[in-house]
């Protein structure tokens, strides 16, 4: 087995590169985290996987949370040069930090800012498709900030946006990877927004702290739930722990670390 | 039992009667309404093709999956749909429900005769007329009828209010040319009243219940999803029929979803015992309310359990009169009718001892 694969890669199905070069194609991956445990490292890892040298997959990144320089620095530590990928046309970076949209700012052709954003993405997907035939991944970091940016109009707009992104996955076989925070919605009895995303997702990755509290050697645990029924050989739910290191993450099964 | 739903949908209602309607209810933990509607679609399609059904066409309105997904699905089931098919129409509310996609730049066609693109989901009147129009294209204006399938009303409910949606469904049901109709709903995404309203306008309700130990009913839908992991894809399928005379019948089955689709099987005999092994939520709450004997009966005072003699507190109170002389008690009680006066010899004598007093006799 390839030594470079870790437990998360295995859980996401990156171990069968020959059989299925892009296992996430046409799928929606939802990463849920909470205040105690950030899930952005999962995002970084999937980024690295998508942009790895032995595939030609392309990535469209919507950054609501952090600027390009941040991701550039982190991915460099993981051994991936984002700036180079940008010039290679394998990465399209949307800096959305300053995005604000409200109903007051409707554009002349009666389309909201969210719809405009989607059109841009769709246009980008079409351009990338004409360049390469491989899989395109759309990544959102993170969805709750889009919700914040879109309030003032209707938070339903975000769900509409998600719906359209979902239609991209089925029409053009893109993958959609979304980071979202779970505990924002914890006080709600029916967090419709969150539940809607979970319904759309094919794979749910949940990052949470250890139930027993903080520890030096274990920084938290990941639960990967594969909702797809078809691949029956793969276990549907996997649970493992992780330790975040300077330039990488160590994953291990609970209790298997000496 | 899933067959009986299918048969009811296939046979449709009598003339002058509302069309039978089915709500398929799923939750986040058991998101298989799509599989159930796929099962019904495949069966209805083949019976329409074989001419066994009262309806002659099928109008499918897609909200949660693209039309190509359904065409692929039907193909897997051995039903090939070509654009010249005269028995099915798909109304596509998935690809562009709000008209966001720029027409000028990408050249999305308005759809073929098979698949029609519907762009204004919030306008339910227009949606209604497009459904009827699509149906008429299939079966003509006469008395021939068609089935209507809506793959998810959740999207509809997001764009319009609940009364409007249930109004649309009722309008469809009461249309003379609609023979039967079914839709699916994820009950976790909406308030309970929405679920109730939609159940109310339907004659059948199919509920997919996950196999999970839901000991307390208030657990969050998300936690349920992670709880059912090992049994994901399995569960109970409950169907409630409202019969014509007003009777209600509930039936249950087990379902199992695999990559080929959904399978139904009768509930295994191990579970069908005559008595309940588990408490329902209501029963549990009521059980907890019961005050057991000797428990909290004294409202704050220490619990007293009668053991045959006076309690320590009583002894202290009466200690003084006793010490003044034993005769006194005789005097006090003498004028009364009858009384048993008994002075215990010592505290060594146990009042209700189970011990055999002759235990130590050596005979």
Automatic annotation (TrEMBL), chain A:
GO terms for cellular component: elongator holoenzyme complex. It comes from the Eukaryota. One of its GO terms (biological process) is tRNA wobble uridine modification. Signal peptide: none annotated. Pathway: tRNA modification; 5-methoxycarbonylmethyl-2-thiouridine-tRNA biosynthesis. Pfam families: ELP6. PANTHER family: ELONGATOR COMPLEX PROTEIN 6 (PTHR16184:SF6). Belongs to the ELP6 family. This is Elongator complex protein 6. It comes from Thlaspi arvense (Field penny-cress).
From TrEMBL, chain B:
Residues 348-363 have a biased composition (Acidic residues). It comes from the Eukaryota. One of its GO terms (cellular component) is cytosol. It holds the Pfam family Elong_Iki1. GO terms for molecular function: tRNA binding. One of its GO terms (biological process) is tRNA wobble uridine modification. It is found in: Cytoplasm; Nucleus. Residues 338-363 are annotated as: Disordered. Keywords: Cytoplasm, Nucleus, tRNA processing. Pathway: tRNA modification; 5-methoxycarbonylmethyl-2-thiouridine-tRNA biosynthesis. Residues 338-347 have a biased composition (Basic and acidic residues). Belongs to the ELP5 family. This is Elongator complex protein 5.
């Amino acid at each position: 087995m390839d030594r470079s694969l870790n437990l998360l890669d295995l859980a996401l199905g990156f171990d069968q590169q020959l059989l299925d070069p892009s296992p996430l194609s046409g799928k929606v991956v939802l990463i849920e985290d909470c205040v105690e445990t950030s899930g952005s490292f999962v995002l970084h890892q999937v980024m690295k996987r998508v942009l790895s040298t032995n595939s030609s997959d392309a990535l469209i990144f919507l950054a609501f949370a952090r600027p390009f320089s941040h991701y550039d620095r982190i991915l460099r530590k993981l051994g991936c040069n984002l700036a180079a990928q940008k010039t290679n046309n394998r990465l399209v970076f949307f800096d959305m930090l300053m995005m604000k949209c409200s109903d007051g700012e409707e554009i002349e052709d009666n389309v909201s800012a969210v719809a405009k954003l989607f059109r841009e993405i769709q246009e980008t997907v079409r351009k990338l498709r004409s360049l390469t035939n491989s899989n395109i991944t759309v990544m959102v970091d993170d969805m709750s900030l889009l919700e914040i940016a879109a309030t003032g109009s209707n938070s339903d707009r975000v769900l509409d946006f998600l719906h359209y992104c979902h239609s991209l996955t089925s029409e053009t076989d893109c993958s959609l990877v979304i980071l979202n925070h779970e505990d924002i919605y914890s006080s709600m009895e029916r967090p419709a927004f969150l539940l809607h995303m979970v319904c759309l997702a094919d794979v749910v990755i949940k990052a949470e702290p250890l139930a027993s509290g903080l520890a030096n050697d274990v920084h938290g645990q990941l639960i990967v739930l594969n909702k797809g029924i078809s691949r029956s050989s793969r276990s549907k739910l996997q649970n493992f722990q992780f330790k975040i290191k300077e330039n990488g993450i160590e994953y291990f099964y609970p209790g298997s670390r000496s | 039992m899933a067959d009986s739903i299918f048969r009811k949908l296939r046979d449709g209602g009598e003339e002058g009667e509302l069309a039978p309607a089915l709500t398929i209810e799923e939750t986040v933990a058991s998101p298989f309404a799509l599989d159930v509607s796929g099962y019904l679609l495949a069966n209805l399609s083949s019976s329409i093709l074989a001419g066994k059904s009262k309806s002659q066409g099928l109008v499918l309105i897609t909200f949660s999956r693209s039309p190509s997904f359904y065409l692929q699905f039907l193909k897997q089931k051995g039903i090939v749909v070509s654009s010249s098919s005269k028995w099915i129409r798909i109304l596509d509310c998935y690809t562009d429900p709000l008209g966001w996609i720029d027409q000028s730049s990408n050249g999305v066609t308005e759809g073929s005769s098979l698949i029609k693109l519907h762009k204004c989901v919030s306008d339910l009147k227009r949606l209604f007329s497009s459904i009827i129009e699509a149906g008429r294209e299939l079966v003509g204006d006469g008395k021939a009828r068609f089935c209507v399938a809506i793959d998810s009303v959740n999207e509809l409910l997001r764009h319009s209010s609940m009364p409007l949606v249930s109004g649309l469904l009722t309008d469809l049901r009461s249309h003379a040319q609609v023979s039967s109709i079914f839709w699916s709903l994820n009950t976790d995404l909406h308030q309970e009243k929405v679920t109730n309203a939609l159940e109310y306008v339907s004659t059948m309700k199919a509920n997919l219940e996950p196999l999970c130990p839901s000991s307390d009913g208030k657990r969050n839908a998300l936690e349920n999803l992670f709880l059912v992991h090992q049994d994901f894809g399995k569960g109970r399928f409950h169907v409630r029929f409202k019969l014509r005379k007003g009777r209600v019948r509930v039936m249950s089955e087990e379902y199992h979803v695999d990559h080929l689709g959904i399978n139904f099987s009768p509930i295994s005999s191990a579970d069908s015992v005559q008595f309940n092994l588990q408490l329902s939520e209501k029963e549990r709450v009521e059980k907890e309310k019961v005050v057991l004997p000797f428990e909290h009966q004294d409202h704050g005072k220490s619990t007293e359990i009668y053991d045959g003699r006076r309690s320590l507190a009583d002894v202290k109170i009466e200690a003084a009169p006793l010490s003044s002389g034993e005769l006194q008690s005789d005097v006090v009680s003498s004028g009364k009718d009858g009384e048993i006066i008994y002075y215990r010899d010592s505290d060594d004598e146990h009042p209700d001892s189970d011990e055999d007093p002759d235990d130590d006799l050596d005979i």
